[in-house]
Known about the structure:
Blueprint: H1 13-17, H2 20-29, E1 32-35, E2 45-48, H3 51-59, E3 64-65, H4 86-97, H5 100-104, H6 107-122, E4 126-128, H7 129-134, H8 136-145, H9 153-170, H10 181-199, H11 208-217, H12 223-254, H13 256-264, H14 269-279, E5 285-290, E6 294-296, E7 299-301, E8 306-310, H15 311-314, H16 350-364, E9 371-373, E10 380-381, E11 390-392, E12 394-397
Parallel strand pairs: 2-8
Antiparallel strand pairs: 1-2, 3-5, 4-12, 5-8, 6-7, 9-12, 10-11
This protein binds protoporphyrin IX containing FE.
Amino acid sequence: MTSPTIVIDLADVEYKTNPWPTYVRLREEAPVYYVPEGTWDGQDFYVLSRYDEVALALKDKKRFSSQIQTQGYLNLPMLVNRDAPEHTRLRHMANKSFNARLVRTLGDWVQGIIDDLIQEILAQDKVEFVEAFTTALPLRVVGGMLGIPLDRKADLRRWSAAVMASFAVAAGMDPDEAPGFYEDIVEFGNYMGELAQARRGKPNQEDILGELVAQNEAGDMTRDEMVTMAWSFVAAGHETTMNLLGGGIHMLLTDDALAKRLTAEPERTKDFIEEYLRIYSPTQWLLRRTNEDIELHGVQIPKGALLHVVLGSANRDPRKFDNPDVFDIDRKGLGEHLGFGAGPHFCPGAALSRLLAETAFRSFYPILDKLSIDPNDPPRLRTTQGSYGIARMGIIVNR
Ligand code: HEM
């Protein structure tokens, strides 16, 4: 059998904004696909696109490693870039700082932030929605939990973009596409260090920063680990949640039947969110390295090989989901998508982002008829590698 030729150009805008046809070919013709010299610095990689192999790579920590960067300035002590036992220790601390109790107590505060943002939107004739809402909400919430004052929100946005760029560079993006990102993440690190210093010896305010400082004071966490943990929360929580919020509101404004149904049955919002995460996974792919030689679907993958683990394709695998390209909040196995990953690195922010999205969507139902998409500023998709979502969308406020 000759191997199929499927072009995977990570920098190609078409692959970033409409990857679905390529995913179909990958799943059907080459479930383990070898791309020689596919990253900007000429590394080979293998693409896994079916549900079963994607789940395997995420869950089997013995054979698949998350430590993508092993040297150089991007080898940071970040959760996503570490394996057991270091990952287990850091993750335990992340879970402590970010536990379900904390998330459960946030409801009223989150609702207050959403109400303020909606009031600000309704007071204008038109808004750029990503700026006005989808970026503002996760940054205010995560920033607030980290003790970052609102007047630093412009900096926080810049820092968040810089940490995202560092992930993209680690994943193979040319660093020249994000000039200045390293200086920005160093600046953010220094600022978080100062915030933590100012909290020392004070009572724990039971926010994330308070928990991180408490663990640092107890000698369980170094300063560098504390700062990188804060980076991880800001970066991992911002762009992903913003993609979910922007895409969800776009669907509500363009699909009348769906909007009517959810307005009548707001308790189905949870299912709407899960189905959105399945069909338009905000994180489209993750990276892993093999810890040993592995054979999958007859392809020999050598030890140390780089893998692109495509959640966005797994979530549309017809072997797992019936009619996978159809958006259906009544489908069976709704929660079995891999949008938040799986296994030891499963997203610790899942509960928080579900809370933000559910509170946000439910708050928009009563005012959907006041909002419409601005035909002069239609939705534009992001072109960040490995993520899918709306980068810009004009909305008109009808009176
Ligand atoms: C819709 C929103 C979100 C999506 C789709 C999402 C997706 C993911 C995925 C797929 C992973 C797995 C990474 C891997 O296996 O390598 C992950 C990990 C992570 N997420 Fe999220 N995430 C979201 C929101 C958040 C939020 C709100 C936060 C925090 C404020 C957060 C913090 C993290 C962190 C720290 C990790 C690393 C965990 C580890 O490596 O152990 N995420 N996320």
